[in-house]
Fold:
Amino acid sequence: MTAGPIFGFRRNSDCKLKRKAPTKVEKKKIFQQGIKSSWNCSYDQMKMVFRMFNIFNVLTALGVLVLGTSGLSVSAWSHGDVVPQAMNTEGLPALGDEWTDTNPFRDDAKLKDIAIEIGSSGYNQNCARCHGLEVMSGGIAPDLRYLDEDFESDEWYQERVRGGAVREGKVYMPKFEGIISQEGLWAIRTYIDSRPDDD
Structure:
């Protein structure tokens, strides 16, 4: 057999599958009877192919077991392997340490376009993986296009981006405070506001 990309082997011409892969019951019969059945290959070749599938399944189970019992539990990976990235907010005024109650760029004609551009970059680096490209969620996380442009929605947004979301020890959204500035987070909110909710 020649080396191949998936399991290290590629079926050769004398071991071709005539129909779909056999079920678990069919595999057992094939092994017990030692006949060619639906496979056009020798018993030893079939045995090797099935053994490779079993090794793959065992290795997968061991990987899950190791992750589950090590310091890196599977639940720690709930958010995936995305680490929040800082943003360049050059062009936006400094807002200071005290958080504003509402988005300061929403109604500022001079800064809104700059904030949208900066927010688009920040959103794509930090939010799109869960909330969807162009703020169109695929159902994994809330569709942020439906946030109202008002005090209550800004308050909810601010609470969520600053503190993150953790339920039962699982990180559903990381904290962004201390990594992304207030200016950057409000720029992302401005970008979200600019996305139509009727796409």
In short: Helices lie at 24-33, 43-69, 112-126, 128-131, 151-163, 182-194. The beta strands are 16-17, 39-40, 165-167, 170-173.
